[in-house]
Design brief:
Two copies of one chain form a homodimer. Chain A is an alpha/beta fold and 504 residues long. Chain A is 45% helix and 13% strand. In chain A, a hairpin with a 6-residue loop joins strand 12 and strand 13. The longest helix of chain A has 27 residues. Chains A, B: It comes from Acidovorax soli.
Chain lengths: 504, 504
């Protein structure tokens, strides 16, 4: 099914789009019964499964309604466009005191600090997209999924009884040993018991922040910065102080020094020194050391998010700040979600002097990670699978990135600047000032293309004309075409803005 | 490996115990090199793997130290008994600014609110136990692990590429649909989009509490109550108000009314109305309704933990309070960890009016649950596997429970009271007042038996002479013997206490 899955997904979404058009054109009226699953499958020449998925999708959007034992109907209050659909769902929900069914993505809510992640992910689940270039993932084919699946099958065959045991403690001992050995390869001197396994780096960061800061405290972050971190800080009641980053230096350390001397209540600095999201740069080693000294002087925690560290476009794997940490000041967070197996949801943390506190918090946040993924990852590491996989992945990234950057230069309006990364899988684009990236996203989603608008990467509107474009997939004519469509839409917006400013 | 795994585990721990004895008796002096893995394996007639696990275990305890390329050595500062071992490890850690390696379980720390879970789980990972009757699990053989493993293997064979996709959103749509259908069977009228998939009920509870309360607020809980909830409240800065429960009525509702009228800052009531942990009782339906009315009147959230609801000892599955909730006041939390697959770490929540807030918090706490477990659970539900499994599990519980209760009556000192549960898998024992359950645990662990001392189930010392005994395993002569040993140790403590009070 390696190839079929994307085809399948596409075809149910295509069918859903077609049905929405038919409904909008009143081919099916509100309240009218829709064709049965079998009838529609036969009529469209698609599988029953495709129709079922299509109907479920439309049901989730509130476009159709299932009635018990009688089939599928066009929703009574037909959503004419997006806003009324939401209002309708909310009204229905209010009438019977239920939460509303999920509305179609409201792009404006991407700006909301509390909902930016929710809405960005909703792009994936609620929107028919051909090119979802908005997330932090590579093409599924770029992961060693077959090898991982084989290991998993072997473990399930030989130890099925493990599914009936309760995972306890801070992670499978075998995994922690393998991780410690792996990390030793890039300068981290950690014992297995200094590591805990978490639900992705998200949980690692969350628990780290809770261990070192309390609601009302401040945390220094990079700017632009991973939007998930901003939503997390908001949800924890922590104040984000955003310090500008440059591709050559990383977080500005003079600015940091100033802030640490003048701001009160700062408890931690969160950084991604290797292949920063979204800039893709790496902080020079001298800056990493200086950052560590600053943190020590000011009695702070340094929370280091190193999830992209393995994704260098060269064979050189940069060291994390943790490599120089002698006083347990650095909380190191890693993950297998970027480099190896997104669906595993496994991360890890070495909490330094806050490790015991983090273990307690982690235990009462989610207890333990599932057994199987931990065991598979341990075995994959033990049998030496990671190194050759990463070599291939890095080569692919090194091939695709310049091509994508060239395509952007070719197709985007003059004045667009491309930040080419040294690692990771994005381009960070600065559009001409007049082009609002959120407006561009609205148009692009209509064409089945999504990216991450810059406004997500700050609590300010500073990056409103920036965007992040995930290009970690094989470079094809179709992808070039998608970049061209984006460029043309951006050009159109720039033109419209120019015309508007002239007419004013 | 179904049987071998426990045998294996036992034998490496036996070897570790033997080595510790040898070290204590100076057969190996501090700093001395220990036999190589192969030599020790040959000498002891065990596998190389057993020796490796034994050495890793001792290394984690700080008893031995690995030296690069040179083998395993007795730790320089030899731990003579438990306390010095800890002091030594801490001293070493301090010297090089590293966190200490995990010490052997310090039973006294079970009383600490922040560490009670950590320490209880440490019993499993750091202590050689023959009868670990201290956790909330059934015997692995009582779960349909073979069926689940088969489904997982099938999915991995047909869709390995799913391991390369990023799970987003609030859970696999197929799983949410199946869960909604399953819950409809016991009175819950929920749409799939009103459910979110979580990392066990632990995450569901955590996110629910964060959605409805802020640090400094108060939350009403049952007494005795699941210790994990107390640690969670402590970690969230929430104040627990413990209201006594009786087996016949559940949480005392007069007391609740009084508290709600007189205490300020109460934001939620957390209850386990079906087969409460540790009492095992079910709240009568009229009380469930009255509890819901009270919560409505006082504008609170009711957080309902229903993880044991499926584990009735009769075919009757009691309804959760959520079944009567018309105003979205009840946050319903469920899990597959108790009834089906502990190693999956999957739970779910229906957050009512707080659902959107919970989704945002969940996303920035751990993003999403892993794909495979969600897909397996959905398929197991879809193919009707749950009902027959639960029937068998309930029968087994109904058979074991009275036998275990009889054995306690037979072997424990006079004055011991057994609370026999209507569901779930524990006995809750009230020992004679003079017997301290923590002292009993200390003796029992020496005999390879663990249980949960009552002191964990409250922030007060109210249940110091109570204990919870997990009896969800086949009733055998050996298990009866373990109960007998416990009873004799309890008798010995009672006798000693009596002698002490006479001599005073």
């Amino acid at each position: 099914m390696a190839k079929n899955s994307s085809v399948l997904q596409h075809s149910y979404l295509q069918l859903a789009q077609q049905l929405r058009r038919d409904i909008a054109r009143r081919r099916y009226a509100p309240g009218e019964r829709l064709p049965s699953v079998r009838a529609l499958a036969a009529a469209q020449g698609v599988s029953v499964d495709t129709v079922v998925r299509c109907y479920r999708h439309l049901e989730a959007l509130g476009v159709v309604q299932a009635r018990h034992k009688s089939g599928m109907y066009v929703a009574e209050l037909e959503p004419a466009g997006r806003a009324p659909a939401v209002a309708t769902a909310a009204a229905v929900a209010k009438a019977d005191n239920r939460p509303a069914p999920p509305p179609p993505v409201e792009l404006d809510r991407l700006v909301s600090l509390e909902h930016r992640m929710t809405q960005l992910y909703a792009l994936t689940t609620q929107q028919p997209l051909q090119w979802g270039l908005h997330l932090a993932n590579a093409a599924p084919a770029w992961y060693p999924t077959a090898a991982l699946a084989r290991i998993a099958q072997r473990l399930l065959r030989s130890q099925p009884e493990m599914l009936g045991t309760y995972p306890t403690g801070s992670g499978l001992p075998a995994l922690r040993s393998q991780l410690a050995a792996w990390m030793a390869g890039y300068g981290l001197d950690l014992q297995p018991q200094e590591l805990m396994v978490t639900h992705g780096s998200t949980e690692a960061l969350n628990v780290a922040l809770r261990a070192v800061a309390r609601p009302g405290d401040a945390v220094v972050v990079e700017s632009p910065v991973y939007f998930g971190l901003l939503q997390m800080l908001g949800n924890l009641g922590l104040r984000a102080i955003e310090l500008p980053c440059t591709p050559s230096e990383g977080m500005g350390l003079e600015a940091l020094e100033y802030v640490l001397e003048h701001e009160s209540g700062v408890r931690a600095v969160v950084v991604m020194p290797n292949f920063q999201n979204p800039l893709g740069h790496t902080m020079p080693e001298r800056n990493k050391r200086r950052l560590l000294r600053l943190v020590e002087q000011h009695d702070l925690a340094l929370i280091e998010d190193d999830v992209f560290g393995d994704l260098s476009h060269t064979p050189h794997r940069p060291q994390p700040v943790k490599a120089w940490d002698r006083h347990g000041r650095v909380i190191y967070c890693g993950s297998s979600s970027k480099s190896l197996a997104p669906a595993f949801r496994l991360g890890w943390a070495a909490g330094g002097r806050w490790h015991a506190r983090m273990e307690s918090l982690k235990l009462s946040t989610s207890l333990a990670a599932p057994w199987l993924e931990q065991a598979v990852l341990a075995e994959f590491l033990r049998t030496g699978g990671l190194q050759p996989h990463l070599r291939k992945l890095r080569e692919r990234l090194a091939q695709t990135t310049p091509r994508a950057a060239e395509a952007v230069q070719r197709h985007f309006p003059a004045g667009t600047r491309v930040h080419s990364p040294a690692g990771g899988w994005w381009l960070w684009l600065e559009l001409p000032q007049a082009v609002d990236a959120l407006a561009l996203l609205r148009l692009a989603v209509g064409q089945g293309i999504a990216f991450t608008p810059g406004v997500l990467f700050s609590t300010t509107a500073k990056y409103a004309h920036y965007l992040r474009l995930n290009i970690a997939r094989p470079w094809t004519r179709e992808l070039e075409q998608a970049v061209r469509v984006l460029g043309q839409l951006a050009g159109g917006l720039q033109h419209a803005a120019g015309a508007a400013s002239i007419s004013r």
